[in-house]
Amino acid sequence: MNKTPLFDTHRDLGATIGDFGGWSMPLWYKTGQLKEHIATREACGIFDICHMGEFIVTGKDTLAFWNRLLSNAITAMVDGQAMYNFMLNEEGGVVDDCILYRFNADYWMLVVNAGTQDGDYAWLKKHQSGDVKIENIGPATGKLDLQGPTAPKVVAKLAGKEKLADLKFFRFIPEIVIGGVKCLLSRTGYTGEVGFEIYCPIDETKKLWDALMTAGAEFGITPAGLGARDTLRLEAGLPLHGHEIGPTLPAVGTPWEFAINYDHEFIGKSALLANKGKHFVYPVIVEGRRKPGSHAHAIVGGKECGEVTSDILAVSLDKKPAGFIRTTCELKSGDALTLKNAQGAEFAAKVMDNPLWKGTSRKKMDSFL
Amino acid sequence: MANYIVPNDLRYTKTHEWAKDLGGNKFRVGITDYAAKHIGDVTYVELPHIDDELDKDEPGCVIETVKSSEDVYNSIGGTVVLENGDILNENPEIINSDPYGEGWLYEIKAKSADDFKALMSRAEYEKLLEELGD
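Predict the joint structure of the above. Result:
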């Protein structure tokens, strides 16, 4: 099992450790998942995300390479912009969902999920052609996510307010010194709140963590584990690879269609077009206090038409059971359905608008400083 | 190895429940500190009803956590005589912070004392935790 440089730090903080994508990661700390979730919504959560993968791709044919491999409107990107993308296979399934960073026309970074990174690297190498160089910097790269309304104050205290003031959603600063550590600061995240994904040299991760924890003490910084990350992303309406999206699930009919731009030719495009109107993903809220369980069947009008892909709590919505379903029938917000689990228990549920929770992620940065 | 509280005056199951002898063939049950730390924050408990007859090893109640639903197995066959709904309905997360105290689940009048005797001692349960290596 892989460990991040912060493994001992998590243990010292009383973390319960679990396996995630081949990594031993903190699921929650002594504080507990609910408090970590709420702290991120109301103040600031700090997450060790060193397990995710990063690739630097350079060369004059890189833009063409991305346009072939990725789904979103990459040609329109500007220097200093990040963009959410699907990397699809020929069947329109999601090899991985990823964030692409454009430094300049010939220098890019792709950030991918932990459990899929080896397969992603093989996929990139398989399709490499022309002047495209691919370097796996994952093992050399640390990553901390700082998320929540006081996150900008924490970074501003260490790096200066003026550097952050103009940083918009899905933009990044390629080089900034935070607590004496040279970092890449990206205004992105997986929680729905304003905040950052911060990349640094792997052996300086602990130094960065300590600097942020010290600076953040007055702003309610709280170490948060993968448990809170999951409930936060669910409410923020974001998918988890292997659940809502995956290699065998055509990426159509989902709330993440915005990441697909049909004006360019990319691997999987024709399969997506062929599957339009056949697959759908929706967020749901379940009545009562019990969760139906992952893979519970979705039944609409007496007919089975799909299954639950994520089954957790909407902590910020009165701790209601909530999740995503994949269906083969089209539904709309407000539609009633029944979820039936493997034990035969039935649960009333309702299709919701995505996202369940509208956080601070898109608000103007200066309102937080 | 992480430290888990394992009180001396209780007996334990392989599935991380505890039982306490209250005398008169009555037993109080709950989940162990190890279980409480591993299931995550408890958000709701579906308790058995008073007078329910529960067999040994059938699910006695369900604990909902943020992430999952966990069956709690009844380790002593008998009749439920008390349940802790007064505390747990208001404050289910007390199971995480005080699993042997206020976070108890229910009390059962046993058909026979043999079920209790067959449970693990503290030393045996600690050995199991060691084998789990965590």
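Chain B is about 20% helix and 35% strand.
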